[in-house]
Design goal:
By secondary structure, the chain is an all-alpha fold. The protein has helices at 3-18, 22-34, 41-61, 65-76, 84-108, 113-126, 133-144, 149-159.
């Protein structure tokens, strides 16, 4: 690939990103960022980081943390990608959202009192990390008023550990 081809490709990726076609822009930038012979490898790595960050933020806002995590992991697998710290923080946020979904599902499945109380506690303590304080209160309230008195008592003991 020549410098002219690389520049055109980066320009094309920019135009795609500006038009909202982040998937295709990321694919082009990832290919260039991974190519040690690409003259604009560093620029592509920066562009990839910016595009993937936008993609992940959008996916998280849309309630799709699994897809956000997959997107971030693909980008982080390219050694040259820039701003890995920011991408890793977004990956952590995606994992927190996925954890909240799993804790919620564990409670819905009606587990034994020990597991249910643990899932409620983990959910209630994780939600504030994502700015969801009201949801955390609702999780505690759900556990404290649960019809299974053993589970409700275990939740009460867990909330008092603070």
């Amino acid at each position: 690939m020549t410098a002219i081809d690389s520049g055109r490709t980066i320009g094309h990726a920019r135009r795609l990103a500006e038009a909202g076609d982040l998937d295709h822009a990321a694919a082009i930038l990832a290919e260039l960022a991974a190519d040690a012979s690409a003259p604009e490898q560093a620029e592509a790595a920066l562009g990839l980081s910016a595009v993937v960050e936008r993609m992940a933020q959008h996916l998280l806002a849309e309630g799709q943390p699994g897809q956000a995590a997959d997107t971030l992991l693909r980008a982080l697998s390219i050694a040259q990608v820039a701003d890995t710290g920011r991408l890793r923080v977004l990956l952590g946020l995606a994992h927190l959202d996925m954890a909240c979904a799993e804790f919620t599902e564990a409670v819905r499945e009606g587990p034994d009192a020990d597991t249910g109380a643990l899932a409620i506690e983990l959910l209630a303590r994780t939600l504030p990390l994502r700015g969801r304080d009201a949801d955390a209160e609702a999780a505690w309230d759900y556990g404290l008023s649960h019809p299974d008195e053993v589970l409700a008592e275990q939740v009460r003991l867990r909330i008092e550990r603070d």
